[in-house]
Design brief:
This protein has about 100 residues and is mostly beta strands. Helix content is about 0%, strand content about 40%. Bound molecules: zinc ion. Zinc ion binds next to loops. This is peptide-methionine (R)-S-oxide reductase.
Length: about 100
């Protein structure tokens, strides 16, 4: 069974570290890329290197971009347009898909 390492997303806004894939440990996002979307979902405006794979989905006539871990293929969440972020996009991530590693 998975070790329960649930992220308390809103409670620790100032901690620096990395968000890694909860399945394989691949580093996906930096705490510097966090974005408070007020959706309750962990959100980011960018990702680390090439570790996040984008996959275009066509669902119900609408294009959606699915986000996957490049290393193990775990479904992470979706990419949305969002004018509030520095990159104009928002990574909306399932909290079970990522784990937080504090900077040492
Ligand atoms: Zn992974």
């Amino acid at each position: 069974m998975f070790e329960n390492r649930h992220i308390n997303w809103e409670a620790k806004p100032s901690e620096n570290g990395l968000y890694v894939c909860s399945r394989c440990g691949n580093p996906l996002f930096s705490s510097a890329q966090k974005f408070n979307s007020r959706t309750g979902f962990p959100s980011f405006w960018g990702h680390l290197e090439e570790n996040v794979q984008q996959h275009l989905l066509e669902t119900y006539g609408r294009d959606r971009i699915q986000l996957l871990c490049r290393q193990c293929g775990l479904h992470l969440g979706h990419l949305f347009q969002d004018k509030r972020t520095p990159s104009q996009v928002r990574y909306c991530i399932n909290s079970e898909a990522i784990a937080f590693q504090k900077e040492r």
